[in-house]
Write a structure and sequence with these properties.
This protein is mostly helical and 334 residues long. The protein has helices at 18-36, 52-60, 64-74, 82-112, 120-124, 134-152, 154-173, 195-204, 213-238, 250-264, 273-276, 279-293, 302-324, 327-330; strands spanning 40-41, 45-46. It contains 14 helices and 2 strands, in the order H-E-E-H-H-H-H-H-H-H-H-H-H-H-H-H.
Amino acid sequence: MKEAPSVEIAEPKRTRVDTIDGARALMVLMVITLHATPMLLPGRMPAASPPIWAFVLATLCRCAVPFFFLASGYFLNLDRTTREIALRSIKRLGPIYAFWLAIYAAIRFAFYNEVPELSVSFFLNGGAAFHLWFLPALFAGQVFVSFFVSRFGYRLAVLGAALLYFIGPILYDYHDLFGLAYYWRIAPIYRHLGAPAFVLLGLMAHRFPEKGPLVGLFLVVTSFGLLVFEELMLGISLGHPGRESHDFLLSTLLYSTSVFLLLKSLASLSRIAWLGQMTLGIYAVHLAFIWLIRGWISTTTFPGEIAVVTLVSLGSTVLVLAMRRISFFSRFVA
């Protein structure tokens, strides 16, 4: 395998680390929290004037999905060929994606009389469930990193991943600010473009020196402040009403990586590693519980948000535990 001669990175051999599994449990809770906030109204339209607590909470949770990309990169085994990595990913993620794509389409048809339009965007972005975009993006990120690192080395892989990452925010979130035309064709994939950068950073995290919790916490707080500043300045510059929370901005890369490195170093997270091993299943099912419970409990207040997050977390965990006990369904939540 060809590598850049001046860069030495220990390749991951293990497939599980207890602290990362424990951190996964925290991250899936943050995903649920983000999707339950009034920042995202039904249909995933940004709320015009969300309360301050919702803006801060949503921005705080923007490290969650990137964390899963980073963790995937951390365990990416480049002793395998790109073809082997792609086939393994398809074998694992393909059935999960197809199953939940069909389940959520059936839910939207049964309860909302929505008939899905089978387009390229439908299959890239999770169809009726906006959160499922993560799975095809994860596949793309793993394949990109494996191919570029093995063929061109780490330096060109970093350059390519960085280019793809910055294309998304610049052409999607920042296009008005830079006076650029809105490239509507990038809308279905702008989040997918960020996946390789996170996967590659996760792979390279083996090279980063371990820092103490205080240093890690300082980096997290500082990078979170930068992300809040970027969110606010972007809204003010573009004259958007209210406060918005974007999937990926330029500061998201630094904030998410800082969170990953901090949580990876916290030995206490090993206590909930067992829960972290169910996060993919919880991630897949949680949106259905949000749709159900938010119909009864409003999240426009902070106590309402806490109640919905608690009920969704419990419901999703119980369902995943039940599905894992049935051999046929266990493959769709593992």
